[in-house]
Amino acid sequence: MITRKLPDPVLSYLNEHLDCTVWEGKGSIPREELLRTIRDYEGLLLSAGPVNAELLEHAPSLKVVSSVSVGYNHFDIPEMRARGVIGTHTPYVLDDTVADLVLALMLSSSRRIAELDLFVKQGKWQRGSVKEEELFGMDVHHATLGIIGMGRIGEAIAKRAVHGFDMNLLYYNRSRKPETEERFGATYCSVEELLRLSDFVVLMTPLTPETTRYIRKEHFEMMKPSAFFINASRGQTVDEQALIEALRSGTIRGAGLDVFEVEPVSPDNPLLQMPNVVTLPHIGSATSRTRFDMAMLAARNLVGALTGGQAHIVPELKDLAVRS
Ligand code: DGY
Questions:
Q1: Residues 164, 140: contact at Cβ < 8 Å?
Q2: Cα 45–48–49 angle (5° rounding)?
Q3: Cα of 4 from ligand 1 centre, angstroms
Q4: Would you say the CB of residue 151 lies under 6 angstroms from ligand 1?
Q5: Which residues are catalytic?
Q6: What is the pTM of this model?
Q7: Ligand 1: distance of its center to the CA of 187 in Å?
Q8: What domains, with CATH codes, occur in the chain?
Q9: Interval 150-168: pLDDT, tens
Q10: What does the pLDDT read at residue 265?
Q11: Is 69 touching ligand 1 by the criterion CB < 6 Å?
Q12: Model confidence pLDDT, tens digit, residues 194-206
């Protein structure tokens, strides 16, 4: 079951190897329709929506769920494990694209790109209408960047920041990475120290039970009042209300957000009214080439896992054998 339309070469590849049904409607298959039809399918390709007890109960034949995403917080790992259902994801192919977007968020929040774009388009740029200093931003180059979560995407951000912008790099990760320290001159420190010292804090942790609401009020209070908070991982890694308060009260200077606690973000979310916050609709990996590569990798994962070939199985389910 392919829950949404995919590029033609990806569908051709899938049809060559598997007997597939593709949801031809707009967007992704509605949940009720998926639950109604999934009963006899052995493979499922999707990009969102919980793979939980409800879905698995409706899918007694299911062996493999392939997600067109690197994050797999929509997989209920214990439920999948209990039923022997394997889950795959799409690492590697999006690292550079997401890293590009993180740099864009850093630059656009600190140099006020979206805010000042609107200023010009609204005809407010008139001789004598504003003092020059009112348009000033903060430098990215030579500033201190703190990355929380130094995985592959964190390293791709580090490369751009250090080699492109001469930034000073701090990082926190569950395990220390001596090679990364060597490569980027990065300094390993505690989350608290990183928050205190950084001009830009980039959160890149996957969403797990341990990282849910990982950054809270007390963490924003540790940050410099001139600092920017950037999140391109998952909205639920942050206490969003605490972030709103920190931005409102001037505890931090600004934010660049590609992700929100609830997506699509509600139109009355106060973050959308803040000129010092850049808001994007979860487009970290959204370029034509990268989304094509992700779709193809997800297709290969599905075929591989169902036919005894190679697949990027998520680490927590790697030891499971595909059900016969
Ligand atoms: C991912 O691949 O996890 C991106 O965030 C898109 O969901």
A1: no
A2: 105
A3: 16
A4: no
A5: 234, 263, 282
A6: 0.96
A7: 28
A8: 8-93+287-317 (3.40.50.720), 95-279 (3.40.50.720)
A9: 999 999 999 999 999 999 9
A10: 98
A11: yes
A12: 999 999 999 999 9
